[in-house]
Amino acid sequence: MNRTDLLIRVLDTTFDKESWYAPFKPAIEGLTAEQARWRPAGEATKTIWENVNHLIYYKERLTAKLEGREWTQTLDGNETFYLTDQLNDDKKWIAVVERVETAHRGLREALSKTTIEMLEQNSLEEKLLDIMLHDAYHTGQIIQIRKMQGSWPSHR
Question: How far is 99 from 76, CA to CA, in rounded Å?
Fold first, then answer.
């Protein structure tokens, strides 16, 4: 298995191919806008929706970098949590879910076209690994929030 194939495999395990831990996509499946907006007690805790916004931003930004596109939507780490408005509207939530799926597919496609030489330039391989670890970290947070609100299926 070459490095690019390995990176794609790990990217997929963080998104929708279960391995040693639950991936992102099943962690948000079946949620309503109300559940995605729910915030446990404490100001430091982000909602599921905010976490998904955050992950979208970084995937879209890295995809642009891999594709050689200019990235003009510069947000600081905290601003990324508010990328889209959290409304009690299931259609708006579904649009956010579709955007994160599109962001993942875009990153996967860009990665599949990336050469080893490109990965070695500008620490792209390191940035990809960071994205994967970052996704796994926030997926764990999302699952914990779902457990706190009672929306995590007991069969998982």
Answer: 20
